Amino acid sequence: MDRIPILKMGPFLLVTIQVDLYDRLALNLENDLISMVSKTGARGVLIDISAVNIVDSFMGRILGNIASMSRIMDAETVVVGMQPAVAITLVELGLTLQGVHTALNVEKGMDLLYDRTDLLTTQEDEDNGEDPDDYND
């Protein structure tokens, strides 16, 4: 059974899709990602689709499902590296990818995940000896 590797990077999960997804592979990715979010307590999921040339409505729905399920489990989802043809196709199909944040590349996607999860602020506060939960003092 084919699987797409899911890497853990600190508080986030990173998925780099290097092949065009067929339905079974996309469903496996959805299940594997949600299981990994649950198992690791990941705060964010970054999906790199820069090698994907074709997206259909099923793939768009899978990305939306991943974002919705991750959000319920307290994790944000960012899709990066979208090719112009893929963006055009998604708009023409009328898919809004609700709950999916997008960024131009992996670096900007990681910045967006840190912004969305407030993890850098929390880490900086802890490094300065401040209690991040004690903002009223």
UniProtKB/TrEMBL annotation:
Source superkingdom: Bacteria
Residue span, STAS domain: 2-113
Pfam families recorded: STAS
SUPFAM superfamilies: SpoIIaa-like
CDD domains in alphabetical order: STAS_RsbR_RsbS_like
Protein name (Swiss-Prot/TrEMBL): STAS domain-containing protein
Organism: Pontibacter populi
